[in-house]
Amino acid sequence: MPSRLKIVPDVVHNQKVCAMHVDGLADEAARRMRLLKIGAIVVVDNQGRVIGIVTERDITWRVVAEGRDPAGVLLGDIMTGNPDTLAPHDTAHDALDMMRMRGYRHLPVVDGSRPVGMVSARDLYEVTKLDLEEMINAIQKHG
Known about the structure:
Blueprint: H1 7-11, E1 19-21, H2 26-36, E2 40-44, E3 50-55, H3 56-64, H4 75-78, E4 80-81, H5 92-102, E5 106-111, E6 114-120, H6 121-142
Parallel strand pairs: 1-2
Antiparallel strand pairs: 2-3, 3-4, 5-6
Helix pairs in contact: 5-6
């Protein structure tokens, strides 16, 4: 059952968090997302605490579509501030519910106020699919 899968380590494991300072620029964020093949980054303050999230959609809608120069747009101006987050002990089911109810595609994972990962809907789909396949195999083997 997906509800038993924990964010860490079942969904997020060996993940290097892509975090940028609130004064970082949108063009650099876009380059990092492309390089790392990710759809969102965590925005942090001077103490490394999560204060926001910027997604590829934010850059498209709040920068490109408005005709703004990405090299002059601060992440603090386009981020979603004070984002909902997940804790490492939260479950995949918790994450799926939050994403569904609030329309998110990405959720930062924080331990206290420090970023430890980012969960995407795609990540959750993959682990849930594998978990369901294991359940089906176990039922067929014993039933």
